[in-house]
Amino acid sequence: MFSSRTPSNFAPNRLTKAVRAARAGGQSFIDLTESNPTRAGFDYPQDLLAPLGDARGLRYAPSSLGVMAAREAVAADYQRQGVSVPPERIALTASTSDGYSMLFKLLADAGDEVIVPRPSYPLFDHLTRLDLVTARDYDLDVHGDWAIDIASVERAITPRTRAVLVVSPNNPTGSYVTDDELDRLAAICAPRGIAIIADEVFVDYEFEPGASRRAGRMASRRDVLSFALGGLSKSVGLPQVKLGWIAVGGPNHLADAALERLELVCDTYLAVSTPVQLAAAELLAQGAAVRSQIAGRVAANYRALQAVVPASSSCRVLKSAGGWYAVLQVPSLESEEDLVLRLLEDGVLTHPGYFFDFPRESFLIISLLPPEYLLADGVSRVLRHFDGRENRA
Length: 393
Ligand SMILES: Cc1ncc(COP(=O)(O)O)c(C=O)c1O
Prior knowledge:
Layout: H1 14-24, E1 30-31, H2 68-80, E2 90-93, H3 96-107, E3 113-118, H4 124-130, E4 134-143, E5 145-148, H5 150-156, E6 161-167, H6 179-189, E7 195-199, H7 211-214, E8 226-231, H8 232-235, E9 244-249, H9 252-269, H10 274-286, H11 288-308, E10 316-317, E11 325-329, H12 336-345, E12 348-349, E13 351-352, E14 363-367, H13 372-386, H14 389-392
Parallel strand pairs: 1-12, 3-4, 3-6, 6-7, 7-8
Antiparallel strand pairs: 2-9, 4-5, 8-9, 10-11, 11-14, 13-14
Helix pairs in contact: 1-12, 2-10, 3-9, 11-13
Residues 35, 95-97, 121, 167, 171, 199, 201, 231, 233, 239, 244 line the site of pyridoxal-5'-phosphate.
């Protein structure tokens, strides 16, 4: 009766069951998987959403790619980051996930393929499958810094490949894509008619000043059809407001042809509410107060994490340049799933690396959003778990 776009098995896994049971039983634990900025103790200006009540929103005047004032506001936000994108090259979406769906519809037929980084963001499984697109992996390797394994990109490409996805900085590795990597990807993709989709939702959250400015940016490229994705969800910590965008880059003839078709795709759904479009400029301007709090906290938490995990420890914080997450490499004394369950009993919840498709064990993914004192407490519980144990293993 149902399509195969949704899974056939909805049974919760062991971890989900354990977390539910802990919550139902009132067991308190430090949640180092928190990814919702509105639950992480930031100070949101009380009138931040007031622009959504603008009376101009009472009039419906649909516009497929979005109202020009909002597209200009997004272009101005790119300018703030040092990236020049004309507003005509920007399409508004309801979220970044919605942006992916629009792009898959634009680029791929059923059974076509996109290449996604590994390790990365778990939602790619659903996002691709729901649009009947097949995801194939390429690897990110860590040798101190994370880097794209370009040979693995070439290996993953088939005649059905329609796009290569990059996430910059990546969730959860925190690695920004470099200009050199984009040059190499463009040289592979452009002659084969493959587009590049760059998810830049975390671009503002650098751990060291200048990391974001040094990163390669997709929307400013002219050599390959490219799409950069962003949204209010991360850029100003407002996932509930539902506004994202796609910035189209590449040779003019391809970018224009893409925009013409994207206009039809977006016009079919008209998913972005008028009030949020009218409020976009104000939300981006006033939301900067939230962004700077989040940016300050994630950078401070990353530094604190590096400081509390001593070089002598059996655990290691992997090098990360930005984003909302950090990766802790830990001894493989048990499976990641068993480890995460034991840590939950000890009062701290983390994500296992396999959740993000790390090719081997053992890694824990730690959200840097929680308040500093909670993160410190949670991480000390993780470290205590390993104290002395690696010597007995
Ligand atoms: C890499 C990445 N892209 C996109 C999203 C989702 O963004 P949105 O809320 O705009 O759909 C997330 C959410 O965690 C993410 O980690």
